[in-house]
Automatic annotation (TrEMBL):
Organism: Spongiactinospora rosea
Organism lineage: Bacteria, Bacillati, Actinomycetota, Actinomycetes, Streptosporangiales
Domain of life: Bacteria
Name this polypeptide is given: Uncharacterized protein
């Protein structure tokens, strides 16, 4: 893996950036949060994972955004939204 993607301080990319499978365990993708019954509480992504790929644009680099599970809230059910 390229070390160019490793930027935990966010100096190069403006947001903390990790290599594939190198992010801290408390940072999860939106899909992982949803699987745990959580939502990101309207917050922007806390970090990103960059990965080289042949499919997606931007010169073959794909970004996956990560959210802090410690700041996440439970999902709202339809009944709670209606109340």
């Amino acid at each position: 893996m390229s070390r160019a993607f490793q930027d935990p301080a966010g100096a190069r990319h403006g947001i903390p950036t990790y290599r594939w499978r190198a992010a801290p365990p408390y940072l999860l993708t939106l899909r992982q949060l949803t699987a745990r019954g959580l939502r990101p509480h309207g917050r922007q992504a806390q970090a990103q994972v960059l990965r080289r790929t042949r499919r997606h644009g931007a010169h073959g680099v794909r970004a996956v955004y990560l959210y802090d599970v410690r700041l996440a809230l439970p999902n709202r059910t339809r009944r709670k939204c209606a109340a």
